[in-house]
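Field log, afternoon session.

UNIT: design team B
ACTIVITY: writing a sequence onto a fixed backbone
BACKBONE:
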């Protein structure tokens, strides 16, 4: 049985187009190939708790439901995909503790989350949970022995951490307990750019949401960063913030035509108008489908799947504890 496994953190009441092209679409495309017998999506609500010092998480249950509903609205089939909530399975935190005991501080200080905090002189404000994010991520994956995990480019270092730690555990305990999956990164869209040219992120407030209404989308498109080049000046699409978003919605023929327009000269206003129309065409059917999905149906699915997820995860924890002499 071949198994795809991925998670999504519920960090607000909606997802953005970066989430769609970086995580949702690759998962759906892999599901459609028919090469995998099992597809799993878990909602990483425990990971959301790393922001608890900075944010009010009282709406987390709503964020969780909306995240799942958006995956379904984007094309994920709930009848074919096994979906569950991370916090419903205590084994995730149990295994995270075991992995942390095999991890030295120096290794975690090489992770990008910590290095970013140091670069911004905020490491003293960083929670231990944020620093240990890669450890919990590794536990999430290792409990279920998947074959393939779709990830973003920024998670590549976390996978390397997982491989290093598993190697330590297998060597120390003289027993192979975990299956190491392959990482799947679509290089051409591994990182979706936001309105300012940085990675699209809610924390940068440079995103276009899947549930944004036309008025909000128009305001955001108008804010996309440009240069002082005139309408008739040739432009390089590869360095254009508008193109970085627009390209996601173009087929091969459309992309070739727009690149010619860039070389000949095209105004930023026209480019933004085209981008706006593409965005509205894209999000409208997603929003219509989202509105038809009932919260109570999602809750029932999560409750049912939690039982099966616990059965699988507890079996793995039992194997780990026995190998360590804890049972």
């Amino acid at each position: 049985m071949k198994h795809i496994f991925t998670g999504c953190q519920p960090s607000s009441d909606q997802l953005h187009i970066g989430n769609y092209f970086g995580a949702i679409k690759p998962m759906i495309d892999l599901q459609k190939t028919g090469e995998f017998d099992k597809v799993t999506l878990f909602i990483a609500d425990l990971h959301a708790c790393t922001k608890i010092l900075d944010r009010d998480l009282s709406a987390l249950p709503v964020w969780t439901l909306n995240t799942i509903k958006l995956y379904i609205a984007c094309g994920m089939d709930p009848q074919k995909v096994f979906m569950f909530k991370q916090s419903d399975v205590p084994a995730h935190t149990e295994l995270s503790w075991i992995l942390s005991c095999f991890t030295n501080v120096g290794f975690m200080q090489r992770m990008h989350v910590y290095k970013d905090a140091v670069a911004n002189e905020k490491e003293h404000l960083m929670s231990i949970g944020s620093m240990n994010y890669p450890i919990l991520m590794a536990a999430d994956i290792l409990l279920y022995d998947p074959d393939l995990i779709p990830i973003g480019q920024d998670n590549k270092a976390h996978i390397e951490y997982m491989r290093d730690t598993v190697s330590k555990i297998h060597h120390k305990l003289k027993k192979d307990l975990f299956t190491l999956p392959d990482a799947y990164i679509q290089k051409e869209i591994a990182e979706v750019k936001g309105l300012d040219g940085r990675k699209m992120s809610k924390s940068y407030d440079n995103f276009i949401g899947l549930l944004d209404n036309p008025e909000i989308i128009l305001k955001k498109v108008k804010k996309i960063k440009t240069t002082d080049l005139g309408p008739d000046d040739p432009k390089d699409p590869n360095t254009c913030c508008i193109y970085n978003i627009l390209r996601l919605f173009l087929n091969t023929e459309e992309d070739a035509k727009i690149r010619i327009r860039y070389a000949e000269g095209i105004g930023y206003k026209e480019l933004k108008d085209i981008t706006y129309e593409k965005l509205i065409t894209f999000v409208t059917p997603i929003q219509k489908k989202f509105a038809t999905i009932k919260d109570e149906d999602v809750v029932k699915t999560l409750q049912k799947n939690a039982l099966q997820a616990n059965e699988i995860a507890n079996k793995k924890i039992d194997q780990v504890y026995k190998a360590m002499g804890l049972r």
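LOG NOTE: The CA atoms of residues 58 and 154 lie 28 Å apart.
NEXT ACTIVITY: expression trials, pending approval
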